[in-house]
Amino acid sequence: MKLLHIVCMSVFILLSCNRIAAQDNIGIKLFGLSVHPKGEEENAFLMPNKLDEHGYLVINVGAELSYEKFFLKDVISFKVVQALYADCAERLAGFSHIGLRHRILKRGNHSLYGGLGPTLVFRRNWLDLPGYINQNRFKGDPGDKYQYLFLWYGGEFEYKVGLSKQLDFGLSFVPGYPDLMSFAFGINYKLN
């Protein structure tokens, strides 16, 4: 939870800066779709919103809030994301992410960004679910309320299309291969 404290302090510092470029933005996305590339056959029975019997595709309902501060006009930025959602077993889960991003390409209203940085993923403990087979991805003991996973290299690709001078539609893809990939979509509001 120390990372969450750092995230909150970073957002406060960035928001209190006097100079905000037109590209700096806040965003909200609906979360999404989880993809398990190798399936989750052992634990698929715990996933009420799976779209197939092996848990390759699972709907997760939730949202993520973000703040993005550009250092080089519309090219290099610092992004903070906080998400809360119902995980594959419909238990409270979320992640906190801080990362640097770079624009990969831009064609008219269309842009693609890539980012990388530390991410803390947490979820309500699955070890108390009857029949759950522990794959040892998350840390935590059976008596803990939450489990967590810390990644130094968490990242995202985000496709944006400009809807107006201040509003973009965004589609995010988190490439956590081979365990989990996810999609979210929403809007980004540019600050002036």
Give an overview in words.
- This protein is mainly β and 192 residues long.
- The chain has one domain: Porin (Beta Barrel).
- It is 7% helix and 56% strand.
- Strand 3 and strand 4 form a beta hairpin.
- The chain is elongated, with a radius of gyration of 17 Å.
- The two termini are 32 Å apart.
- The mean pLDDT is 90.
* Helix-strand sequence: HEEEEEEEE
Q: Could you tell me the number of beta strands?
A: 8
Extract low-pLDDT stretches. Answer: none
N- and C-termini, Cα separation: 32 Å
Report the mean per-residue pLDDT as an integer.
Answer: 90
Helical coverage, percent range: under 10%
Question: Strand portion, in percent?
Answer: over 45%
Number of helices: 1
Principal-axes shape call: elongated
CATH topology: Porin
Summarize this, please?
The chain has 192 residues and is mainly beta.
Any chance you could write out the topology, listing elements then pairs?
Elements: H1 2-15, E1 25-35, E2 57-72, E3 76-86, E4 92-107, E5 110-124, E6 146-162, E7 167-176, E8 180-190
Antiparallel strand pairs: 1-2, 1-8, 2-3, 3-4, 4-5, 5-6, 6-7, 7-8
Describe this protein with a few key phrases.
single chain, 192 residues, Porin, 8 strands, elongated
